[in-house]
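Hi team,

Filling in the usual template for the complex we talked about on Friday. All components are listed, including any nucleic acid strands or ligand strings, so the model treats them as one assembly.

SUBMITTER: L.P.
PURPOSE: interface mapping
COMPONENTS: two
RESIDUES: 590
SEQUENCES:
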Amino acid sequence: MATNASTLRPKSIVSILTSRTVFPYVFILPFVLSFLIFFLYPMISTFQMSLQSIKGFDTVKFIGLKNYQNLFNRQFFNALSVTARYTFWTILILIPTPLVLASVISSPTVRGGNFYKSALFMPALTSVVMAGLFFKFAFAEQETALINSILVFFGAEPYRFLYTKTGAMIVMVLFCSWKWMGVNLIYYLSALKSIPAEIYESAEIDGANKVQQFFNITVPSVKPTIIYVLTISVYGGFSMFAESFTLFNGARSPGDIGTTLVGYIYNQGINQNNFGLASAAGLVLLALVMVVNVIQLALTGSFKKEV
Amino acid sequence: MSVDHPVKTRLASFSLVTILVIISVIALMPFLFIILSSFKPGVEMVRNGLSLNLDFQNFSLTNYGYLFTQRDGVYLDWYKNSILITVLQTAGGLFLSSMVGYALAKYDFKGRTLVFVLVLIVMMIPIEILLLPLYKLSITLRTINTYQGVFLPFLVSMTGIFFFRQYAIGLPKELMEAGRIDGCTEYGIYFKIMMPLMKPAFGALTILMAMGSWNSFVWPLIVMRDNVKLTLPVGLQTMLTPYGNNYDMLMSGAVLAVLPILIVFLFNQKSFIDGMTAGAVKG
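RESULT (copied from the run log):
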């Protein structure tokens, strides 16, 4: 309010910039610029490109929804299917397993909780490339490679993991599970801390066993965290690309067994300069993610809360 | 139950702990294997895959030497690029995101809700969707193959803004009033009084941002063209071709790339875990 006293005189630029009403705008300026240049403009331009046929950078032609029609092709549906199956399996593993592990670790009878926590968390520190090196060569097709040597030891045939549809999916899902198990574990552990121990104690007195306690106390109490983990898993699953890129050493994979939606966008856009089709694919991906986000927000009741 | 069947309970908890131990060992296995194979000739990995063969006589530090001597020491260039980009992106990102988060938390101004909603929307959208238009924009701005091309588009971090806002909301407004009475400008209040109070938030986000930048792969892969300009993850990826000493350098290069993070982690496990999960929005 004190700053308004100076309004009688013509202001210098400095006094305008330091006034209490202008100050917050100066501070949010980085966001505004970044948003306009690196988000809104690209968003508009990708929408525009999705309606164009672009050959190189010079010849641009408006072709309406043709690119979207062209998405009805085998490669795109394959990428969609790979992404959907990958997301499904990673969710199936990465939602319940860390929760069970977290409740075991946090139970008072188990010691060394910090060791397990750190050990499981360490994979999250690695770059996708470094982790990919392990998975690529541990699941290599030779009999001597780590996983095949275990299979052979148990009398099974060596398997060409990175050359078959099922094998590729197994490796990608294990890769993701290995990398993110610890992070989800941490989310669950911090959620479990807020459950008062007395609830478990009185359940114990009432004769509920550990399994009953898990399903009737633990699961309902951490429901918001489960939904959060679900959201980031869907997000991560739909936008998966780097893992597949390192495993197959490029955005293509033999018979497209590991090519994801983002991989398809990369192939079409960066490799083949087919910006129109790639943009249309990107917007379909955006639509899918938004639908999932809206469902998640509706489930958590975030629409009712004030932001 | 536990009183009635102590043996059964103990057996159950024993088997649960055994499972925990096994899972922890599996989690650590890749680290062990990559470190072990970094001492072995790369050709063995090409021929046999990553194998259990622990022929210690063949172990040597040669692969680490190659990193400095082979291919004109390009690995050192990658290391330097990664350090430079990580430092610039983290420092710039912390500075700018904290300003935005603070303004959103502590000032009532027209458009505040709009800005915050926009932050949330950008957070919800996978950046992979914008790879192509950002690539096209980088060509127009002539930032392809430059450091700023790698970090500028993601310098202002939405997670950062969100986290700093949450943190700043909890800071006492009275301190700002006191600062005003003492004659501080709004900038002075932020830089001299409020920013130091946000130190824990800075700590957690330094870790989150630095790790994200150090490990970032897809965008640097698109932006950087010259071999000497690549970052560590992208550079290592290009060595996945059986050319020269590539495979010898692959594993030792990967070990040295992850080593700084592991060392920092082992000494600050708690702040690391807090930082990595800072993006969590509690429902």
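MY TAKE: The beta strands of chain A are 52-55, 59-62. The two ends of chain A are 28 Å apart (CA to CA).

Thanks, L.
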